[in-house]
From TrEMBL:
The chain crosses the membrane at residues 20-47, 59-83, 89-108. This is Amino acid ABC transporter, permease protein. It comes from the Bacteria. It is a multi-pass membrane protein. It comes from Deinococcus radiodurans (strain ATCC 13939 / DSM 20539 / JCM 16871 / CCUG 27074 / LMG 4051 / NBRC 15346 / NCIMB 9279 / VKM B-1422 / R1). Residues 24-212 form the ABC transmembrane type-1 domain. It is found in: Cell membrane.
Amino acid sequence: MNTEQLQSILQSAWHALPTLLAATPVTLGFALAAMVLGLPLGFAVALARLSRLGWLRTLSGLFVSFIRGTPLLVQIFVIYYGLPSLGIQFSPVVGGVIALTLNAAAYLSETIRAAILSIPPGQREAATSLGLSGAQTMRLIILPQAARVALPSLSNTLIGLVKDTSLVSVITVVELLRSAQLVIARTFEPFGPYLAAALIYWLVSSLLEVVQRALERRFSRGAARN
């Protein structure tokens, strides 16, 4: 690569930057929406997998197995292109959010389930001896401790969602990657825009990692005081 080629790449990346930055909030919006919606759904699935009801454990286990065992891209195609044949149709934005939410919920449920199971059974027994109900034990004793255990994995899931949002570009959602593709279609210079998009993904992920570490330190201090 000579100096002129490098200059051309940097110039095309710089020219693409305003368009890509304008699309970045869309990427973040998809990731946050999937996380906010997927977290309670994942919690419900985790509780279902811990239920004493066999049929509920089976159904929730099948959901997790199917979502984790199939590519997210295929899930997006099934929801956006497949469901209309059954009379169920979503806009690209809604379809993308649903696919990301279901995918996130399956992975989050395993994180939450493992965190709950990591709490020693003796604490449940102690709570019962104090007269706490099952719901009170879960809310006051189990969940605060499980949250500290699950925090790193939950944060990693959010970072993964930021990158996974690139897949909704296949259903014409104009997020970060799709914006880069549209710039390339106008300029016929792929390297610069793709490089600029990659740098934005990296910077966003790095920022989220900084926030994750700060939260972990705060939770650790709180646990030490308790």
